[in-house]
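Read as amino acids, tokens; as here:

___
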Amino acid sequence: WPSEYLTSITGSYGTYAGLLVITSLSFETNLTTHGPFGSLSGTSFSIPMEGSVVVGFHGTSGHYLDSLGIYITPVIHFYSALKGSVSFGPWGGPGGDPWSFKASNGINEIVVRHGGTINSISFRDANGHHSPIFGGLDPNDIGVEEKVHDIQHLVSISGTSGNYNGLLVIRSLLFTTNQASYGPFGVNTGTPFSIPMEGSHIVGFYGKAGWYLDSIGV
């Protein structure tokens, strides 16, 4: 926490050694899925917890795990009590040089170069301050430029990461404001990532970049 948190649990229950017990479990975070553990047999169960986070468990047990339940709370409650901003991520690969941009008065514009992947990204805040261009060092693959203008309130970012020209990089990005969604830019392939930010807004970005945008966090 806070870059990774538990969002749901799935599994199955059935008869084992003459007892009705939990036969398998999978744990899903905002970044990946762990499991399944045990044997996928019997009756399946699933609790999707979009916008919430698992904060505890309850149930019964004896020779085996007989039953299991969860306690949840909205994810915003976790970081609303923290002072200042909280970072999430980064997603993507380990390559490139570190970069960061934190807006002094909100992010007003995002400039993305993309083609087969996300080549580069840059920002402008509400005071007119421009960030450097992060990425885009491949001279033979500069992509096309897209601008997200007049952003009022940036509330979420989602996308995918995967292999491109032998590098693990950000393959696509989608930006959501309080008014609309922009993208996806790039190619929507690879491993998805997403951060719901209900009740909050994004004040900055960080990650790594070189020839392309290697990774990004918020």
